[in-house]
Design goal:
The complex is a heterodimer of chains A (about 110) and B (about 600). Chain A has 1 helix and 5 strands; from the N terminus they run E-E-H-E-E-E. Chain A has about 110 residues and is mostly beta strands. Chain A has one domain: Ubiquitin-like (UB roll), CATH 3.10.20. The longest helix of chain A has 8 residues. Chain B has about 600 residues and is of the alpha+beta class. Chain B has a domain of about 200 residues: Aldehyde ferredoxin oxidoreductase, N-terminal domain (Aldehyde Ferredoxin Oxidoreductase,  A, domain 1). In chain B, about 40% of the residues lie in helices and about 15% in strands. Chain B contains 22 helices and 16 strands. In chain B, the strands form 4 sheets. Chain B has a 6-stranded mixed beta sheet, with helices on both faces. A 5-stranded mixed beta sheet of chain B has the order 8-7-11-9-10, sandwiched between helices. In chain B, strands 12-13-14 form a 3-stranded antiparallel beta sheet. Chain B is globular. The chains are: A mainly beta (about 110), B alpha+beta (about 600). The interface between A and B is large, with 48 and 62 residues.
Chain lengths: ~110, ~600
């Protein structure tokens, strides 16, 4: 049976049993055909996206939560506030911070 | 404020207090160091010769109540890259100099003596203090001795490596508590330039000084309040240490260790793989956990800390103190992402205590940790140290204390010299300066910055990580090769932030929150008394000055290239090479 492995970081490590910062904090779940990240996070992990920072699937940064999760995927979930460090988060479409007024154009 | 420049001439051990020339009045930080170096130093001069000068300059807002703005820039012609150089750091000196009304300190000339000196700067005088007893002394001991005599002073200077004129020597700075000399303007060998002037430390005592006043106080305060609000509001720079909120306050810049690892862009084993199994053991989370554990175990005697400020007035507080797990006492402060990567991941060392100790040795002997880590990796390539052997790496680094030890001396020259000396071709460097902690194959825009910045490979020169890291949607696609515009825009904005004296991490607040950008513009305009201050224009002007210097120093397009193996070797797990064209690299400055 296919599975997915979810690597947890920051506060989210609490979801894995007996985990610590220097241990692997991994949840292994059965893979479900055509499952989106939204379903996995909200339904199976019972988390809100507000509790999550950066997400990677197979070492690729996720910005579109409706993507289908592939079989045998490695998923990394970082806790809220754990993002790539530099300005321009909005370019990734995170929408985690309320934007008021003008957008800044890098170019 | 009527700032002055202190010009020290070590040829006759005199100094002058000069008015700031009109053309420099709106400059600060990197803008000022680069302008002075470009105006006063022959680009072709020997960086370790008498004609080179070293400049210490405040950011425009350093010493004011603008948040996180107490950076000090240091500039000279670099002994490492042989081009123009600016490096900046927190610490105490910028705010101390600001209170004394000193915008910059220029040190020039050729000593006619064999003695070592400190320069003591206070409200009424500048003194030269003979300091031969402090030569070749470890910096933890030195800063402790100096604070006993000059309590609360800002300290910057050259350690053992700088005094021996080694090319990876940084400019150290004491932290606000004086527990560590780890506030480094580390890159480019600037410590060696100070060493040529026979100066160990600059001691700044701001007793009797006063905080600089903005010309337009109302506008400045308006901008400051906006900046504070934006920094507090942002998910990365805000939050509170010890809570679930605030990545930088809880994990420091080393929050990136696990994130970049999951992105498959964490350079491992001298840039062979983009993923390191042991990354979690040396991550910001691991430091956080160690601090919590030792604080609980040792109570009031514990010295571990996160959410630590690197300079007075910093509200981002991304610094930390790594404690010894057996005593709770400080090993090193801070352990930053780039350092943990260079000394740990890049050498496949995943023992936190060993990495912290390696960091401590760098701080003690006075070298830049990024180039040091790359040099250790080169030593591992040469078979001098086994991969992943932290104990052996520590013993190897200790050779640096012995001036007669050839391997130790070679290591302290940095990765490029180490590679040339030990016959290792695989050295990740541009213009002689080693790569920081992002592999340019999956993050190509940072590769463009490494290649084209005047500074040598430097992530801070144009930090294009977030908008282009491998993503499935949104943002700049990192596989899209047209990176020149992105890199140029970031290099320009960075130059401006450096000039203002703000910490680079305000980038979150100014690029993500409109009020943050307004805060940046208004604090600078309010302090200077100008209505408008065009950020891109100023940033581009600084870049042009630096580019022109390097051109006149003999740099060509061929110097704006990454080492060949980045084009030829695919990096797992993404299995991509760096294939940005030379034309695209050249476009960064051709189109400016």
């Amino acid at each position: 049976m296919s599975s997915i492995r979810i690597h947890l970081y920051g506060k989210l490590r609490e979801l894995a049993e007996n985990s610590g910062c220097t241990d692997d904090s991994i949840i292994e779940l059965a893979w479900e055909e055509n499952e989106t990240l939204v379903n996995l996070v909200n339904k199976r992990l019972n988390l809100s996206f507000d509790e999550i920072g950066e997400i990677f699937i197979n070492h690729k940064l996720v910005t579109e939560y409706k993507d289908i999760i592939p079989s045998e995927a490695r998923i990394a979930l970082f806790a809220q506030g754990m993002y790539l460090l530099c300005g321009g988060q909005h370019l990734k479409g995170h929408g985690f911070i309320e934007k008021k007024g003008k957008e800044v154009n890098y170019w | 404020m009527n700032y002055k420049i202190i010009r020290v001439n070590v040829s006759d051990m005199t100094y002058k207090r000069e008015e700031i020339p009109e053309k420099y009045k709106l400059l600060g930080g990197r803008g000022l160091t680069s302008a002075i170096v470009a105006d006063e130093v022959d680009p072709k001069t020997d960086p370790l010769g008498p004609a080179n000068k070293i400049v210490f300059a405040l950011g425009i807002l350093s010493g004011t109540s603008a948040p996180s703005s107490g950076r000090l820039s240091v500039g000279a012609k670099s002994p490492l890259t042989r081009g123009i150089k600016e490096a900046n750091a927190g610490g105490l000196t910028a705010t101390r100099l600001a209170k004394l009304g000193i915008k910059a300190v220029i040190i020039e000339g050729e000593p006619k003596h064999e003695d070592w000196y400190h320069i003591y700067i206070s409200k009424d005088k500048v003194e030269f203090i003979k300091a031969n007893e402090h030569a070749n002394m470890g910096l933890y001991k030195l800063i402790d001795i100096l604070w006993q005599k000059y309590p609360k002073s800002g300290l910057v200077g050259a350690g053992i490596a700088g005094q021996r004129l080694l090319r990876n020597a940084g400019i150290f700075g004491n932290n606000p508590e004086n527990t560590d000399p780890g506030r480094y303007a580390g890159r480019g060998g600037l410590g060696a330039v100070l060493g040529t002037k026979k100066i160990i430390a600059i001691i700044t005592d701001d007793t009797g000084g006063e905080r600089p006043k903005p010309v337009n106080e109302e506008l400045f305060k308006k901008g400051r309040d906006k900046m504070v609000k934006a920094l507090k509001e942002h998910a990365i720079t805000g939050g509170k240490a010890g809570t679930d909120e605030g990545a930088l306050k809880n994990y420091g810049s080393n929050v990136l260790q696990n994130i970049i690892n999951e992105a498959g862009a964490l350079p491992t084993k001298n840039f062979r793989i983009g993923y390191f199994e042991g990354a979690k053991n040396i991550s910001g989370e691991a430091v956080h956990e160690l601090v919590d554990e030792t604080n609980e175990k040792f109570g009031a005697d514990a010295e571990g800390e996160y959410g630590h400020a690197c300079h007075p007035g910093c509200i981002i507080r991304c610094s930390n103190t790594v404690p010894d797990k057996n005593t709770g006492k400080l090993i090193v402060s801070p352990l930053e992402y780039e350092t943990a990567w260079a000394l740990g991941t890049n050498c496949t060392i995943d023992n936190l205590e060993q990495v912290a100790m390696m960091n401590r040795i760098c701080n003690d002997i006075g070298i830049d940790t990024i180039d040091a880590g790359n040099a250790i990796a080169v030593a591992m390539e040469a078979g001098k140290i086994p991969w992943g052997d932290g104990k052996a790496a520590i013993e190897f680094m200790k050779k640096g204390y012995d001036p007669d030890d050839v391997e130790g001396t070679t290591f302290m020259h940095g990765a490029k010299v180490a590679g040339d000396t030990w016959g290792v071709d695989r050295v990740a460097q541009v213009k002689g300066q080693a790569f920081p902690a992002y592999d340019p194959r999956p993050i190509r825009g940072i590769g463009v910055t490494y290649a084209t910045t005047t500074m040598g490979a430097d992530h801070t020169a144009g930090y294009t990580i977030a908008p282009e890291i491998l993503g499935s949607a949104g943002g700049a696609d990192p596989r899209e090769l047209n990176k020149a515009d992105l890199s140029r825009a970031f290099q320009s904005t960075t130059a401006y932030i450096d000039q203002a004296g703000y910490c680079l991490f305000i980038a979150f607040a100014i690029l993500d929150i409109a009020e943050g950008m307004e805060g940046l513009e208004e604090t600078v305009a309010g302090f200077l008394g100008k209505e408008k201050y065009n950020i891109t224009e100023v940033g581009n002007k600084i870049l042009k000055i630096e580019r022109e210097f390097n051109k006149n120093a003999g740099f060509t397009k061929e110097d704006d290239r990454l080492p060949k193996f980045f084009r030829e070797e695919k990096l797992p797990p993404h299995n991509v090479t760096f294939d940005v064209t030379d034309e695209e690299l050249d476009a960064v400055f051709e189109k400016m």
